[in-house]
Amino acid sequence: MVYTNLKKYGLSDRFEQEATMYGGFALARITEQHRDLYKAVREDGYAKAVVSGKLRYSSGSALDFPAVGDWVMLEDDGTDGNAVIHHVLTRSSVFVRQAAGTAGDAQVVAANIDVVFICMSLNADFNLRRLERYLTVAWDSRAKPAIVLTKSDLCEDLAERLVEVEGVSMGVPIVVCSSENGDGFDEVSARIGTGKTAAFIGSSGVGKSTMINRLLGENALATQAIREGDGKGRHTTTHRQLLLLLNGGIVIDTPGMRELSLYSGDVSRTFEDIEDLATQCKFSNCTHSDEPGCAVRAAIADGSLAEKRFGNYQKLGREINYEGLNSREREQEKINRMFGGKKALKNFQKSLKKK
User: Fold this and answer.
1) Domains defined along the chain, listed by start
2) Could you say which residues of the chain have pLDDT below 70?
3) DSSP assignment of 216-227, as one string?
4) What DSSP string describes 325-343?
């Protein structure tokens, strides 16, 4: 079958080949998700879709369910424009976070993406530790990360901010943007080639929708002005959606994240400088606390490594180690790290009562 329409939505030879394994089904890409209801684009147009009972039953976790950007195999359910999703094709990349308010469940933010644009505004949203967190997940997604600094027109110390971001980016491309004068938008567009998919990730109100509107050449996404009180934008995107750009690229817009809890991540890539320093320590099992000959502590002492960056490195490493534990095991792990075990916790509680 010749896929003329789906090529515009990023269909590659790899997915086209895998689709031949499922005869009798139609190849499609998920473009929107509203809880359990999906919108998918097929060669002959759009369809509303739901997950089949068999796929739902066989899924081991939320990771097995379709997400925006996924390539899936559909079957018409007999009604006009409606379909059933029977298979999710193997992902080339996936941005995953721990779902909010759950005990370790995963949530797929975007699938089969080539570039992850981590958006952070240069006013009230600016936070290096949060940026490190996003980079840790982005590197783990298998997509290429890029940092987009928005609202540069509201930043009074741009040069200083850029130096700070460069200090934690570890070579990741940095683009400075402003919706007021259009700076940076051409560079962002150039990084989304024809048939390539990019996801825009970031906190609520950093200007993702405004940027995508600019790339689309129309006001397809609702936006709101920043609040005067704290300089923060208002959250506007309510669901994930995939959109075609004028230059032939594809973007996935995502709702702003109030928090990004790690389900998995690549700390080594994000904190490559600290990992390199660790290889220079006198002892191979150095904990970087008070051992003699510790290269990490020496770098902190001479100012070449920020104490806060090292602290975040340790924090994110501990957080990732919780992966795969259920709620009870996670709680036990926290107790072990904080007190040395339940017995030590009880002794601590007794001492508090005596005091």
Assistant:
1) 4-88 (2.40.50.140), 94-253 (3.40.50.300), 267-354 (1.10.40.50)
2) 78-79, 101-104, 218-238, 322-355
3) HTS--S---PPP
4) --HHHHHHHHHHHHHSSHH
